[in-house]
Specification:
heterotrimer, A mainly alpha (about 290), B mainly alpha (about 325), C alpha/beta (about 325), A: about 290 residues, MetI-like fold, disordered N terminus, C: about 325 residues, Rossmann fold, about 30% helix, about 25% strand, globular
């Protein structure tokens, strides 16, 4: 056995393993968590849980009990039901905003990557300006003028996601456009719309979807940050972010009020990141077979 | 090099102009009338019209833009109608706090990320490497405000070692200043190191397979010299790039951290301007932060050129 | 010339684990090199010659498994501790790699890369190390050596870079220099210059040298001894003169025939070696070259010939039916 003075990495022999690897336990656990959170959020109304806004001033910051599984918050509201209703807000914003980015950004990116020319210069230049601002600052500035509401928040986060989706769609389209099957379709006289929709879209949509999942994770974080600062969803509604913000006030007496939504948020963000990252590694056309 | 610089500078101008235009449009086109906000309860139609005339709000939008831009170029970004402070005063007063925070955070992130990246690259595939890459991935899913709360809970509430909020200027009492800065800077550093570590690690793994590393080993150099000079120096460009990409995130993170830890920085100025609807301050700060961000990115680009001998000598 | 054995490779084997199974890159090689002598190791790509050189330098990939002994100056490099190995490398045991485009660090100046070696092993102060660096660069034929110290590798041509690499290798007056395909990556016009430079410096410094190449023409006038490798084994070994006068192994003959000669008539088809080297993860039972050998008989596919000496003890080959013997029957 050769003893080397430096255990330097020399993996020349075993480079590409990632693609063939099975998804693994973590991936399926992440999927399971996402499904669970989504199901709870969707069926929150029919679940046998107390009203998240029902206050019980005698039961303020009650500990875990049979009646309140995770206790109650500073106003005596049931923590389980607040977490589940909070998931609704986080998921609605987290899923809808990247959807805007996915459709608009994806379409612009595909058109820019396929037609090139002036249209590409214009879209790339336009997104460059959006990217010239630190994203959170821009969100705050716009929301300050538009006013706080779930709808506004979703729209702003969606629009700000467009440049990133556009870049991914454009890069993927550029790579794919040089492949044989596109050139063959062009040679056969297929129309632009047919090539875009039938040949390119099915191939672009997968990397975009992987990126969408990562976008969901980022959006949940941004929404959480804004709500935490009191600049996100307006007060009567509470998302995980605003729950953590409220819990922070009672960090000394009841840290769980901050940490329960924090754990829920962390797990959800982690799950989306994990699934998104795994899918991205598989669908990256630059790593795919030529 | 001079040519490279000139071309970059030429590109900087339109971007800065676009930043100012976008800032102005956000403030002018979106609903939320400035005059209405200022007058509040005392808003009568006559009052509003008079104030609009005084502030020039009745003029065409492009005219107002050029007027505003002209003033901005002369350093006049307006004055808060709440505190009477000019935007420039407010910003210069708070800028050092934000800069110190971001600088400390970046140093902290590098201090955590770089050694871990090297250790993982050297033992790539080992249990240690897998554990650290896994931790870094998990850390990427922890929002800044979460780690802030966790750190406050741990070090301020439970252990009582460090203050949770507050600030003393560095010039007044450097030690007290650093005490107040530790937790905020650490919070930001915790958000930044995973990115640094992940990218630097894969970069180093590639570098360590290069012929010149085999050559350096064949020359009988010490392991430390091979790692820190021969392997890390080519990656310094990557480090600069990561830093550049992260500036935007860092500014956003600083805003959150300043608010949580009650540091009187730019981010807190912005948040309080939003909460009090101090639109002049808001507009001015957004413009300055946007321009600052663009210029910082420009500086990173320049640093890149200075560090890479291939670009410096025009072999790009 | 002394008769002191400087390097002795004893039954060295290198195994590389691959997804397709174990790859035996070097298969039981024995070689000896006396101080001040030159040895050429010749073979086609993939025959294990580079792995053998990496085994001598202890620069094998992390996953590679090495068995056997590499005795250098009385010390077994395989079992030597890291620190003493490090003190030997660059000091007594130097190497020139194949591609000067990748073997010099792109972000360090030529001066830094020369001086760090000198300071590591010779304990020179900065001024002395600089002076010596300039001398070295001048010795390997680099014009304006003072200016080169502050330049980066990309500012030099390929030939110049290889000269720098040679200067670095020579810097501590090594006892053994291993040149691993030193001219393969260079322009044809530069190749002879670099080889002559190596030969000249070898004689001047009385150091031992191993030249690894796929080109028998490279070793012809420049080495004392030649070892021909095929599929991880040494198949013929002889003093250079003797080998070219009377080669015994069909593979050596085929290698030499594959070199284009200046006096061949135009449009002659080069007698390329047909077929491909055997799959090193699927070792053959008989002689590895048998499937491609013009003279192979049934017995060649069953049993592996050992490396044995014939008329002179210096000339060894591994073949049952060597060229020039009665036993040979052309197929």
């Amino acid at each position: 056995m050769a003893t080397l003075e430096l255990d330097l990495a020399e993996e020349a022999v075993s480079a590409p393993v990632r693609k063939g690897r099975r998804f693994g336990m973590l991936f399926w656990a992440a999927i399971g968590w996402i499904v669970l959170v989504c199901a709870l959020a969707i069926f929150a109304g029919v679940l046998p849980i107390p009203d998240p806004t029902a206050m019980d001033m005698l039961e303020r910051r009650a500990p875990y009990s049979w009646e309140h599984w995770l206790g109650t918050d500073g106003l005596g509201r049931d923590e389980v039901s607040r977490l589940i209703y909070g998931a609704r807000i986080s998921l609605v914003v987290g899923l809808c905003a990247p959807m805007i980015g996915l459709t608009v950004g994806g379409a612009l990116g595909m058109l820019a990557g396929y037609f090139r020319g002036r249209f590409e210069t214009l879209t790339v230049g336009g997104t460059d300006v959006l990217l010239a601002f630190p994203p959170l600052i821009l969100v705050l500035a716009i929301i300050a003028f538009l006013g706080q509401s779930i709808f506004n928040l979703t729209c702003i986060l969606g629009v700000l996601g467009i440049p990133a989706f556009m870049r991914v769609a454009r890069a993927t389209t550029l790579t794919l456009s040089r492949r044989e099957f596109v050139i063959a379709a062009q040679a056969l006289g297929a129309s632009h719309s047919r090539i875009l929709l039938r040949e390119l879209l099915p191939n672009v949509i997968l990397p975009l979807f992987a990126f969408f999942l990562l976008g969901v994770a980022v959006t949940i974080v941004v929404e959480g940050s804004l709500s935490f600062l009191g600049l996100g969803v307006p007060p009567p509604i509470s998302s995980w972010g605003s729950m953590i913000g409220e819990g922070r006030e009672s960090l000394e007496v009841a840290p769980r009020l901050a940490f329960l939504p924090a754990v829920a948020m962390f797990l959800t963000v982690l799950a989306f990141n994990l699934v998104g990252d795994t899918l991205r590694a598989i669908t990256d056309p630059r790593q795919g077979a030529l | 090099m001079a040519f490279f610089l000139a071309r970059r500078l030429l590109y900087l101008l339109p971007v800065l102009l676009a930043v100012s235009l976008l800032t102005f449009l956000i403030a002018s086109l979106l609903p939320g009338d400035l005059a209405y906000t200022i007058l509040g309860d005392q808003a009568t139609p006559e009052n509003l019209a008079a104030l609009r005339r005084d502030m020039g709000l009745d003029q065409p939008i492009w005219w107002r833009y050029f007027g505003w831009l002209g003033n901005a170029l002369q350093g006049d970004l307006g004055r808060s109608f709440r505190t009477g402070q000019t935007v420039l005063q407010a910003v210069t007063e708070r800028l050092p706090v934000s800069l110190e925070l971001m600088l400390l955070a970046q140093i902290g992130a590098l201090a955590i990320g770089v050694p871990l990246a090297i250790a993982c690259a050297v033992r790539s595939g080992s249990a240690f490497d897998r554990f650290m890459t896994g931790s870094a991935f998990a850390m990427l899913s922890v929002p800044t405000f979460l780690s802030a709360i966790l750190l406050i809970y741990l070090f301020a509430v439970e252990l009582g070692w460090l203050p949770a909020t507050g600030y003393v200027p560095f010039a007044e009492d450097p030690l007290a200043n650093l005490r107040f800065m530790v937790l905020p800077a650490l919070t930001l550093a915790l958000a930044e190191w995973p990115g640094i570590m992940r990218i630097l690690r894969s970069d180093m793994i590639a570098t360590l397979q290069e012929d010149y590393i085999a050559m350096a080993r064949a020359k009988g150099l010490k392991a430390s010299r091979i790692l820190f000079v021969h392997a890390l120096k080519p990656s310094s460009l990557t480090l600069i790039t990561i830093t550049g990409i992260n500036i935007g995130r860092l500014i956003g993170g600083a805003l959150i951290v300043e608010t949580i830890f009650a540091l009187p920085g730019i981010g807190r100025l912005l948040v309080s301007a939003i909460l009090t609807r101090d639109l002049i301050i808001l507009q001015g700060v957004v413009l300055l932060v946007g321009c600052g961000f663009v210029i910082m990115n420009f500086i990173v680009d320049m640093l890149y050129a200075v560090l890479d001998p291939r670009i410096r000598h025009g072999h790009a | 010339m002394t008769d002191r054995v400087l390097l002795s490779i004893e039954n060295v084997a290198v195994d590389l684990p691959t997804p397709r199974g174990n790859l035996r890159a070097v298969d039981g090689v024995d070689l000896k090199l006396n101080a001040g002598r030159t040895l050429g190791i010749v073979g086609e790509s993939g025959c294990g010659k580079t792995m053998l050189s990496r085994a001598v330098l202890q620069l094998l990939p992390k996953k590679a498994m090495l068995s056997g002994r590499v005795m250098f100056d009385g010390k077994d490099l395989v079992t030597l501790d890291r620190e003493r190995l490090r003190k030997l490398r660059g000091r007594s045991l130097a190497v020139v790699f194949q591609d000067p485009m990748t073997s010099l660090n792109p972000v360090l100046t030529i001066g830094t890369q020369l001086i760090e070696t000198l300071q590591e092993h010779l304990e020179l102060d900065m001024a002395a190390a600089k002076r010596r660096s300039v001398e070295l660069l001048a010795a390997v034929g680099i014009p304006a050596p003072e200016q080169r110290l502050t330049q980066y590798p990309h500012q030099l041509s390929g030939g110049m870079r290889q000269r720098v690499a040679i200067a670095i290798a020579l810097s501590c007056e090594p006892e053994l220099l291993i040149a691993d395909e030193p001219t393969t990556a260079l322009d044809v016009t530069i190749q002879a210059q670099i080889l002559d430079l190596l030969a000249r410096e070898q004689r001047r410094r009385h150091m031992a040298m191993i030249i690894i190449t796929h080109d028998l023409g490279v070793v012809a006038g420049r080495t004392d001894e030649v070892a021909v490798m095929y599929a991880g084994r040494v198949v013929e070994r002889a003093p250079t003169q003797a080998l070219f006068k009377k080669m015994r192994m069909p593979y050596t003959e085929a290698l030499l025939a594959a070199i284009p000669k200046i006096d061949t008539a135009p449009h002659t088809v080069l007698p390329a070696i047909s077929g491909r080297p055997p799959d090193p993860t699927r070792p053959l039972k008989g002689c590895s070259f048998a499937p491609r050998c013009r003279y192979a008989l049934a017995g060649c596919h069953v049993e592996k010939p050992a490396l044995t000496a014939a008329e002179t003890p210096a000339h060894q080959f591994a073949c049952f039916y060597p060229i020039g013997t009665e036993a040979r029957v052309p197929a």
